Amino acid sequence: MAKHAAAAVGWGHHHLQKRWILALLIMLSVSTVIAFFIRAAFDSCDLNVSRAVSAANGIGSARNAIQVAEKRASQIAAAKPSPLSFMKSKIVLLVSHELSLSGGPLLLMELAFLLRSVGAEVYWITIMKQSETDEVIYSLEHKMLDRGVQVFSAKGKDAIDTALRADLVVLNTAVAGKWLDAVLKGDVHRVLPKLLWWIHEMRGHYFKLDYVKYLPFVAGAMIDSHITAEYWKNRTRERLKIKMPETYVVHLGNSKELMQVAEDSVAKRVLREHVRESLGVRNEDLLFALINSVSRGKGQDLFLRSFYEALQLIKEKKMQVPPLHAVIVGSDMSAQTKFESEIRDYVMQKKIQDRVHFVNKTLTVAPYLAAIDVLVQNSQARGECFGRITIEAMAFQLPVLGTAAGGTAEIVVNGTTGLLHPVGKEGVTPLTKNIIKLATHVERRLTIGKRGYERVKERFLEQHMAERIAGVLKEVLRKSKNKSGRHID
Fold first, then answer.
1. CA-CA distance, 34 to 257, in Å (whole number)?
2. From CA 486, how far away is CA 457, in angstroms rounded?
3. d(CA 222, CA 225)
4. 3-state SS assignment for residue 237
């Protein structure tokens, strides 16, 4: 039976962490476990030791499946060298505005590990640190140190010396631009010709000359989607009266670790069962999840309005569908922002506590993607710069209900790999209709999910991202060579 009482009382305290960590320890390869275990350290869900997983059934077949998958992956890797192999022995300085569990820093860390895997000499500096004893910063820095990435202060002599002797400097996010003057000072023009600026922002308040005045003089800008690149081109010209450098659009890709879980049917089944049990929902229930930090810009309020309207229509028209549930992954139980209080109050007012589940923010999305049936990507205004959770969901063969804005519109093929709706209040009713469409048409839901997976395999894998980034880095190094006379392999 569904444990709705537990779900209503728990609201975000679903005791998942111990359960899926143990499941993954049993079923996944050592390399995959390490990747997910590090992420698990930051999962803010409560720990319930008494609910340890007993996954004896299927362990043998899971291990066999993983071994076969690993062997196949190794054969492919051996036959196809990394597109970034030309970066071997190159000196690369990565400059991050912050070191946190947000998308920008984590993407830069992925680049660091890709470069280290081909033998590049990689250095990392973080401009702003909340505290030297911050647990997240400490853990992420040690993760990098364990992988051979050298970490040091953003303001010391080491930072200046490394920037000057580096073959490539990658500045991450628009805000990081303030580091150039603050630290490099008179040496800044020696670094600009070999600087690649990786921009992820889509909000207007990042368009400040103090941040981006050196943009026209760098070797290039790398942006996650075409629509964001166009937005930056227009805004910098119209608002700041400066010209963007040569701009490269690089769509992101799913990590090998995530794909390994997404393609392992036994791992997904075990994760699905345990997550659903902890949420208090049955296997046959339909789960629509929005996985993103809880904020007005991510559209959880409008999603819950659409979800409530869908419940009402189903009830009024007596539609024969399984019980629908909404899952909000990205809550912050410690902060309790005004916006989150508002949406929780809305759930209480509409008396749908047994159908809405709040889960604390976590980097470990695989268990939830295995457990749900549909992903809702409801980012508002200009949408997401890219929205990596979208391609992660598609890897798990989940249909996507997304706003027709930002990177989502470049990822989702409307009517084929998902269904798009307008941003703002105008999108509430269309999203309601799309929820009902997928709830009432099982075959369509499954077909859309399969097509999404096929699209991921065609263009959104780590290998694809590495190839795209490699093309950019080669061009930036070539430009740097022309100005400094350095040799490029």
1. 10
2. 37
3. 9
4. helix
Q: Which residue has the tokens 């084929």?
A: 416
pTM of the model: 0.83
Q: Which helix (H) or strand (E) holds 18?
A: helix 17-27
Q: Residue 220: CB partners within 8 Å, gap ≥ 6? A: 196, 197, 245, 246, 247, 248, 472, 475, 476, 479
Q: At what angle do helices 300-316 and 428-440 cross, to 10 degrees?
A: 50
Kindly tell me the number of DSSP H helices and DSSP E strands found in the chain.
21, 13
Q: Taking the chain, what is the end-to-end CA distance rounded to the nearest angstrom?
A: 63
Amino acid at 395: A
Q: What is the pLDDT of residues 411-454, one digit of tens each?
A: 999 999 999 999 999 999 999 999 999 999 999 999 999 999 99
CB–CB of 344/374 below 8 Å? Answer: no
Specify the residue for token string 């800008």.
Answer: 221
pLDDT digits (tens, 9 = 90+) for 49-100: 222 333 333 334 444 444 444 445 444 444 578 999 999 999 999 999 998 8
DSSP category for residue 354: T
Name the β-bridge partners of 376.
Answer: 401
> Which residues have a Cβ under 8 Å from the Cβ of 150 and sit 6 or more positions away?
121, 122, 123, 124
Which pLDDT tens digit goes with each residue over 460-481?
999 999 999 999 999 999 998 8
Backbone dihedral region of 422: left (phi > 0), alpha (psi from -120 to 50 degrees) or beta?
beta
What are the C-alpha distances in Å from 81 to residues 68, 89, 90, 189, 473?
20, 16, 17, 35, 17
